[in-house]
Specification:
The complex is a heterodimer of chains A (355) and B (163). Chain A starts with 11 loop residues before the first helix and ends in an 18-residue tail after the last helix. With 355 residues, chain A is mainly alpha-helical. In chain A, helix 3 packs antiparallel against helix 4. By secondary structure, chain B is of the alpha+beta class. Chain B has a single domain, classed as Jelly Rolls (Sandwich), CATH 2.60.120.10. In chain B, 41% of the residues lie in helices and 26% in strands. Chain B has 6 helices and 8 strands; from the N terminus they run αααββββββαββαα. In chain B, strand 4 and strand 5 form a beta hairpin. The longest helix of chain B has 23 residues. The radius of gyration of chain B is 17 Å and the shape is globular. Chain B starts with a helix and ends in a 9-residue tail after the last helix. The chains are: A mainly alpha (355), B alpha+beta (163). Chains A and B meet through helix 2 and helix 7 of A and helix 2, helix 3, strand 1, strand 2 and helix 5 of B.
């Protein structure tokens, strides 16, 4: 069993495959987004498939059963939500004109008062800029509509990813030197342990916050409760954002709907309670096994994500940070152990012999 | 019944029955063995493939499902390999390095096409902490296995993995 001499020629083909794959990724980066989303969804759903698989159900039927149940559930939810949302959207479209006028008048009033105190303010044309922004909000919301096509494309791709299961990874592992298999599987199991728990935790958290906001806003008889609850649910996928977004939007709607600050105060109280419930009860419960990130790193990751890929960058910022943190930790450990940066650890020595 | 076979994967039942016979999982109820199976990674090594090398940091314990594995130790002074043991279906190896995260003391090579189950540290920890009913038995069995191996070594018997 003589150690094989390292030969650079054996790395030519793998290097070519890696470079070609990277080149292909760069070329097709525009169409990669649905694939990334599908892979994420498949990753989140895979434990459910495995749950059924280890109980003896063949994978094809496990995936079909999951899609059937999820399909019926989503169809019913979307059907009833669309009834409400489309009704609210038409109302929202009609009401938006009145709202913009009210907002504009309020800003004008405030601007006049401020201009009398600070004479240099009119030069900045603040009211004009805000007015433009306010008028463009419906366009911004409608700008997200093309993303709706993803709702059809992503489940389709995810289906085949779930059907393939871990076979893609097995195929790769089968074609690399077997001595590296253990360390690669170790890295994957470490990433899976922290990232998987984070992903499943944040989705559970977002759904619970959506449900609370939905019920709470309906009970408070706030207009557009459904749309606002959906926005809160989606924005809850980003740490700290859900309750904040909910509080801002709901306060504006409450102010113009009822015209009094007492309603705004109630709304703020409600979202403060949600934030408290989230921080003190929900997160410790659903995120107890997830990777721990420093709040400063979370904020930095969110800003960097926005800089790189806009709103989707914000959504994916934390999962990517989880992977990077785990990878960094594993790399440091490997440097220390495999490359002998640190002396070999000494085994625990107990002086008392076996008796 | 034949209708159910279309949906049911009988391999799972075979694997559960296999796990039931493993000393490491002795005392774990059959319904809980499903969680154990969920934590295991299955892998097939071809004849003469290296599973792990002496000196590598241990990251998983192995259970042989089918085939045979040779454990050999390399002596740098004499530059010779000494066969340490042969591992057969139902036997486990590689657990010591996993627990202490120490370098492996031997090299494991597949003596023929061999299917193994691998239990990685995060999954082991998950079983120990999140599922205490399984974890307690697992920890106890691990201690028993190590103790019996230690006893055998001290009694200067040839090292065997049959436990």
């Amino acid at each position: 069993m003589q150690a094989k001499q390292a030969n650079f020629r054996e790395y030519v083909l793998p290097s070519f495959i890696v470079i070609f794959t990277l080149f292909l990724i760069i070329l097709t980066k525009g169409s990669l987004f649905p694939i990334i989303l599908s892979a994420t969804l498949a990753y989140v759903l895979y434990p459910l498939i495995k749950f059924l698989e280890v109980r003896g159900i063949k994978r094809i039927y496990a995936v079909l059963a999951l899609y059937l149940i999820a399909g019926i559930g989503i169809f019913l939810a979307v059907y009833f939500l669309f009834q409400l949302v489309s009704f609210e959207f038409s109302g929202f479209q009609k009401a938006w004109g009145t709202y913009t006028q009210k907002i504009f008048h309020s800003i004008e009033g405030a601007n006049k008062q401020l201009s009398s105190i600070f004479p240099f303010l009119p030069k900045f044309n603040i009211s004009g800029k805000i007015n433009l922004l306010v008028q463009e909000i419906p366009q911004l919301i409608l700008g997200f509509m093309p993303a709706l096509t993803l709702f059809f494309v992503v489940p389709f791709i995810t289906f085949f990813m779930l059907l393939g299961g871990p076979e893609i990874m097995d195929y790769i592992l089968d074609h690399i030197p077997s001595k590296y298999v253990e360390v690669i599987l170790h890295i994957l199991s470490r990433i899976d342990a922290s990232l998987g728990n984070y992903m499943r935790g944040i989705i559970t958290e977002a759904f619970i916050i959506f449900a609370i906001a939905f019920v709470g806003l309906i009970l408070m008889q706030l207009n557009y409760a459904v749309i606002i609850a959906i926005i809160i649910g989606i924005s809850s996928l980003v740490p700290y954002l859900g309750a904040f977004v909910g509080a801002v939007i709901s306060s504006i709607v409450a102010y113009f709907q009822h015209g009094g600050f007492i309603y705004v105060f109630n709304i703020l109280l409600f979202f403060g309670a949600i934030r408290f419930f989230d921080d003190w009860f929900l997160q410790p419960l659903v995120m107890k096994k997830a990777v721990k990130l420093n709040p400063a790193i979370v904020v930095f990751a969110l800003m960097a994500g926005f800089e790189i890929a806009g709103i989707w960058g914000v959504i994916f910022a934390i999962p990517v940070t989880c992977i990077l943190k785990e990878l960094l930790q594993i790399m440091l450990e490997l440097q220390e152990t495999e490359f002998r940066w640190k002396p070999k650890p000494h085994p625990t020595r107990i002086s008392i012999p076996y008796t | 019944m034949s209708f159910l076979r279309v949906f049911y994967d009988e391999d799972v039942l075979k694997k559960i029955k296999f796990l039931k016979k493993i000393r490491l999982f002795e005392g774990i109820r059959e319904k809980h063995l499903i969680h154990v199976l969920e934590s295991l990674v299955e892998r097939t090594y071809l004849k003469s493939e290296t599973i792990f090398t002496q000196g590598d940091i241990g990251r998983a314990l192995y259970i042989v499902f089918s085939g045979r594995v040779h454990l050999s130790i390399f002596h740098p002074q004499t530059k010779t390999h000494k066969m340490l043991a042969e591992v057969h279906p139902g036997e486990i190896f590689g657990e010591m390095a996993l627990i202490e995260e120490m370098p492996r003391i031997a090299t494991a090579t597949a003596a023929e096409d061999t299917k193994v189950f691998m239990l990685f540290k995060p999954k082991l920890e998950n079983l120990l902490i999140s599922r205490p009913t399984i974890g307690v038995i697992l920890a106890l069995q691990l201690a028993k296995i190590m103790s019996s191996r230690l006893r055998e070594q001290i009694e200067e018997k040839p090292l065997s993995l049959k436990i």
